[in-house]
Amino acid sequence: MQEAVVDHDRKLKELIDRCRAKHIKLNPNKIELKKTSMPYIGHILTSDGVQADPAKVQAILEMKQPTDVAAVRRILGTVNYLAKFLPHLSQVSEPLRQLTKKESTFRLGQFA
């Protein structure tokens, strides 16, 4: 483990040196070093891989019940962003996808 930290620090120093050589300025207020995890475009990056951001999951859980087709599409779009973490999403979301078809009739409260 210590070897990995030393290697990481060496590569980080090389990166900073290259930035200086190319006159690329780095903002120290925006750099986070020695983190075990960090948020990135709606996901959490860790040494174990990519995970769903709990804040995004909570936002989905708190979404209001859809009242029209546009709201159903918004829900599907939001949930699809986390599809890689939801193995059976296709089967579970099928009833919602059916509501977005032209020949479908949307009834208020049909999910209650």
UniProtKB/TrEMBL annotation:
Gene3D superfamilies: 3.30.70.270. It comes from the Eukaryota. Transmembrane segments: none annotated. InterPro entries: DNA/RNA_pol_sf, Retrovirus_Pol_polyprotein, Rev_trsase/Diguanyl_cyclase. PANTHER family: CCHC-TYPE DOMAIN-CONTAINING PROTEIN, PROTEIN CBG26694. This is Retrovirus-related Pol poly from transposon.
